[in-house]
Structures are given as C-alpha cells and as structure tokens.
C-alpha cells in the first residue's frame, strides 16, 4: 500500500510562486536537451468532433527521478453544467520504483507553466533592452504570460493589450491586471523584501488597450500570442526588425497566430520540434514547405545551456514556438508535491 | 474542485466478487463489439531494457459513460527494495464531463479481470461438457483463472496443475488452492446461500500436479496458459480434438505459450485483434504468415452477442487469445467506485 498525496488547486496556489516555476521549467528544458527528459507519444481522442476531446501527455524526467502523465479533457457543454470546460489532472510516479507519488489538479500548474515557458522564450531570445510588450489575447492565459515575462525582462515599460475577438474584454482585463499581479504574484515574496520590491517594481508598468493590431505590432519589442486563433492575426509587413515572438496559442493542429512567412526569416526555436511541426505555430509553414525541420535552430534548452546561439543580432526576428510539453507540468507537479510534504499540505490517501 | 475517491487493494477486495466481475468484463467485451467501447493507442516506454518499463493503456466505454487509463510499471529491482515489481494504477473519468471520479490500485482489479476474461473464453468457446482443466503456470494469476473458470464451467471434475519452470511451486499451489478458493472467492456469497452452495460445489474438484505436460495436454478439455514464456510449452501433436485454449501469458511482444501451428487449424477469437496480432499469442503465427488477420473469427464480444458462431463442432479446437484490454480494468474500476460510494468505502480527497 502506498501513501499518495492529492493536491487541489487551492493547495497548489499556496505552494507555487512564479520565480520558482520559471526555474523549474528551465530545468525541464535543460534536461530534455541533455537527454535526461523524454516525451512519450501523445494519446489524443475526440469523443465528438469539436465538442469533446481528451489527451494524455506523458514523459520521463530521468534527471528528476520521475515519470508521469497529464490527462486534459475539454467538454464544451460543461459550461451549461457549471463545470470547467478544461479539466486537467497530473500524476507523478517515482522514476526509480514506479510508486505513485501524487495526483494533482492540473489547471494552475498548466497556467503557471505556460506563463513560465513564454517568459523563458523572451528571456533567452528577446533583446535585453526590450521596452514594450504586446500581449495578443486577454483570456485566462494572458495574466500568467505577462507576470512571468515582466519578472524576467527588467526593462519593460509598457504592455499593449489586444483581444482579437472582443476588445471590451481587453478593457476589463486592463482594469484588473495591476491588482491581480500584486495579489496573485507578489504574495509569495511577502517575507522576502528584496524579491518583493524587485518584482513590485517590475510589475509597475503602463498598460494600454490597443484597437489596431497593426499599430501595436509596429511598436512592440516582444509579442506574445495566446489566442485560440485558426488564422494569422499578425502580418509579416507589420513586424519591425528585432522583434521577439513567443507563440503559445497554437496548441493543436489547425491553430495559428502569426503569418507563417514570419517564420521563414526568423531565428526559430521551440520546446519540442516534433510537436511544433505537427501541431504548433510552425505547422502551416512546414505543410506549405516554407520551412523545413532543418530551419529550427534547436530546442530552447540548447540556448539555455549555450549549446546553440539564440539571437545573433539586434535586428534579428526571433520566435519561440511554445507548444507546451508534459515535462513542464511534471516537474512543477513534483516540486509542488515535495513542498506539500514539507509543509504538510494536501490530502493523503492509501492506494 | 472535485471530490475524488481513492480505493486501495483492501477496499477493492471488500467490494469485488468474481461473479460480478465476469458479468462486467462480458459487458466490456459486448460494448467493444457494439462500438460502444474503444481502446486508445498504448504508450509503452522502457526505462532500461529488461529491467524497468511502464505502459499506459487507455480507452473509452461510451456505453458506461466513462473513460480512463491504467498505468502499469514493472521495476525488477523493486524486489530488493521490498516493493512490488508490478505496480498498477487505474483512473476513471466521467465520460460526459471529464470530471475525475476515482483512482484505484490496479493489482486486484487486473487479477480479477484477467481471471474473468479467461473464464469468458471457456464459457463461450469450450465444450459445455468439459470435465478436465489444465492450468499451465501456477503463479499469481493461476488462482483467479481457476476460480473464474470453475464458476462458469459446471462440469469440471479435475484440474491439472503444471508449472513449466519449477514444479515444486505447483505442489505448494495445490496444497493451498482449495482453502484459497473458499476464503477468497466464496466469502462474498456468504449471505446468499444459493450462490454460496453453487460455487462451493463447483470449487469441489480434484487437483493434481502433473510432471508431464504432454500427458496432461492429452487428457485436458480446457487448457489455460498463464506462464511468462517466450517459447511454446504445448506442442500441436499432443492436442486432442475438442480442446479449448485460453491463452493469457502473452501480454507483450515476444511471448508465446502454445505452438503457433495450433492456431492454424483452430477457431480463433481474441479480445482485440490488433493487440493479439502485435503482442499476443498469435504474434508469431502472424509474423511467420501461418495465419492472417482474416483467420480470426472475430473478437469474443461477437460470440457473446451471437453475431459470430464460436465452436461449431465438438471436435473443433478453439482458442481465445486474451491479451488483456484496458476496458476490462475500467469497467471493473467503475463498478468498484459505484459500490464504494454506496457503502462509503475508500478515501475521499479534493482535486
């Protein structure tokens, strides 16, 4: 019989802070690059086309002695049932014995991990001097993207907000964001005045809702796209030299956010080349033979480890296609379980 | 937040009885045949060749409103750590909403389900008049195979026990089996004297350890093979007309228990044609082009539903290649969760 720990979203929120999550996701990227982390094939099943589906992503992080899976389902009719459409569950197993260690609600882990991954793209590929950030999409993910990116990019002064579908939502988002950054992302550092002050200052930027994506693109140093779009929102001719893109929204086949021709002349990195080619932002460019597998400069772990050069010149356009890999969730979940054990948080059960 | 139920092995033992498990596994086979049950691709990963591996089997039973997975790992070095080598975990999700329903220790579920599947093969393919059963392999699985088969085959009088590797184990097994059948399989019917008496009588058979597999094969009406063998234990020339085989042991590529030529002239059924061809008892016969996909008369659900004829004549040799499908585990796990809810068994946790 095994003692297994369950962590719900509230428990996980108590434990995770974005600085640590960024460190952990960097570790996952590094381990993947060093063949200490491996993704297993994704199982995808559509219960009803366009209405309900699920996938099981799994993998092994040898470097962290764990393996596991996340199962994410999307039932669009849950809305009417007062249930979340997306439900994620993460399971972590001991990599040396197979003993189950924990089961965790996957939602907050995915939000934090996706934000961290986006920021890591900017940290290693954007110009250090970047002053402006354009956030495309103001849904659930946007807050995490912005928080993490502000934490790693010290010179951002202005964040443009753009919602491709309903700009009144961008306004609502803008009205709340400073408060939410403070409440949700500063709280963990309340006992560490140095970090608290550092991030407080970093979060103190100017937010502006933009009506014209063209104008905003022309002014942005860093552009993060996290919109569930099926066609390009950003055209190539708007993009100025030196821009960095982190693309988050293309999480399954058929999705796209930036013009595929942008990828042709860019320095292109991703978290997993296979996923990027088949279901990521690069899918269309690959299909149309605008770019090939050889056009990836590598996976992001190579830049972190200095195995590959990221940006070469100030004028380069860089792209990080963040498809989202299970190793992110697993390494964060494992950290949460370790902290929960120390702090005696969560429900223990017998299995 | 979801209330999720965890059931460990002791809790599951309190709930399951073999009669119900046989009914549930039959239901799973029937649903698969009616396209109300579907297997997803298996994820298999070897951590270290021959030392440690894991697989994730998953599927959807529309007819039972559930989907889910079982993760089974095998770490051979666990022996020295006082841990089970095989560790199985089953997760069940609501098929209409994706809400997690429960997490269960998979060991007892797999044992019971595998026993039930073997018995279902005999029930629908063996001669009703079968009097002798030969059990090849006396490991962990044998008890469940024998219990379930005796429950569905009313005329068995004698059970031959054969252990291909160490026959002294067959002796130990024989010394204990009557007691174990009574203690582990009759107990659930203690309040139902009709069933109790029925099964008590069915379990009252003569057990005999055999030294010669050839002699035993020549006397057996039903042969169940559950030995982790890599080459044929049973030769074709020993098999008498009318024999039924249920083959359990070939659960991964490279395993085999009966001579592949037996399959050529037999009436062949399985639980999943794809699994049987690639990793089941039929793998070698298929590879050597002794039989083809067309030689399967179908999956076992077709016989249960009377969509296909099983045995046609008393003299036919029938084979049920029981590869073990995740739908078995899922339907049993779901039943266990429902009963546990009624009886207030198990640990509830928040996810």
Give an overview of the whole structure.
With 351 residues, the first copy, chain A, is an alpha/beta fold. Chain A folds into two domains: 3-109 and 327-350, ornithine cyclodeaminase, domain 1 (2-Layer Sandwich); 117-324, 3-Layer(aba) Sandwich (Rossmann fold). In chain A, 37% of the residues lie in helices and 25% in strands. Chain A contains twelve helices and 16 strands. In chain A, the strands form two sheets. In chain A, strands 1, 2, 3, 4, 5, 6, 7 and 16 form an eight-stranded mixed β-sheet that branches. An eight-stranded parallel β-sheet of chain A has the order 10-9-8-11-12-15-13-14, with helices on both faces. The longest helix of chain A is centred in the middle third of the chain and has 20 residues, at 167-186. The relative contact order of chain A is 0.18.
Count of spatially separate domains of chain A: 2
CATH architecture descriptor of the largest domain in chain A = 3-Layer(aba) Sandwich
Oligomer: homodimer
Structural class by helix and strand composition of chain A? alpha/beta
Overall average pLDDT of chain A? 94
Most extensive interface between two protein chains, with residue counts: A-B, 44 and 44 residues
CATH topology of the largest domain in chain A: Rossmann fold
- Note the beta-strand portion of chain A: 15-25%
- Tell me the helix content of chain A: 25-40%
What is the CA-based Rg of chain A, rounded?
19 Å
